[in-house]
Amino acid sequence: MNEIWLQSNRRTVVAIALAIGLVGLLFAVLAFGMMQSGSVVAARVSGFTAAIVIVAAAAAGYLGTRPRLAFDGRKLRIHIGTAQPALIPIELIEGFLLGKGPSYLSGKDDYKTETSTLIVRIAERAPEWEKVPTNVRVAAWCGHYVTLRGTWTEPLSVDVVNRLNQRLYEVQQAAKQSAANSPAAPRSTTVTS
């Protein structure tokens, strides 16, 4: 069971999924009209296109409702706009920061429209997490910093970042305590003479 730490921006996702779905519905109506007029081949093409577009709308809706950050008990799951989330061991996460960056919204000047960003700091001792390919419109990953664009997350604020850092501290302390109490952990012994 994943504990959700940061949701995606559901309003944006719903709007995009509805827009795509309406295009699919338009193709479905067009296919029905062509079938009535006797254009069977054109009706099939329009029907097939409608089905593909409606599946794309459902996929956009599903992918957009996944949380941006979740904790699975051992790893932080970062959904960065790719099919699979990045799974980073929680002990490698150093903290969360609030920032600002380009929104990368279609039809806008990328460098003039800004959005809040959430920056995830990963320990430098893990070179495999230095750079990971992402969808740049959703996140950027470079030099042990993952920058999640606020356009695609729940509203970001200082309170949200403080909540994330507090929860990170709690799970890291619990992991340390669990490791110290495990039977495999070496126990210190005191020798008296």
Features:
single chain; 193 residues; 2 domains; four-stranded antiparallel β-sheet; 22% strand; elongated
Describe the protein.
It is built from three helices and eight strands. A hairpin with a 7-residue loop joins strand 3 and strand 4. The model has no long low-confidence stretch (mean pLDDT 81). The strands form two sheets. It has a four-stranded antiparallel sheet, with no helix packed on it. Strands 5-6-8-7 form a four-stranded antiparallel sheet, with helices on one face. By secondary structure, the chain is an alpha+beta fold. The chain has helices at 10-37, 40-65, 158-181, and strands spanning 3-6, 69-71, 75-78, 86-89, 93-102, 114-122, 139-142, 145-149. The protein folds into two domains: 9-65; 69-181, no CATH class. The radius of gyration is 23 Å and the shape is elongated.
Strand element count: 8
Number of domains: 2
Determine the mean pLDDT: 81
Strand content: 15-25%
How would you sum up the global shape? elongated
Side-by-side strand order of the widest sheet: 1-2-3-4
Tally of separate helices: 3
Question: Which percent bin holds the helix content?
Answer: 40-55%
Biggest sheet: strands, sense, closure? 4 strands, antiparallel
Alpha-beta classification: alpha+beta
Report low-confidence residues grouped into runs of 5 or more: none
Radius of gyration: 23 Å
Helix-strand string? EHHEEEEEEEH
Quote the distance from N terminus to C terminus: 51 Å
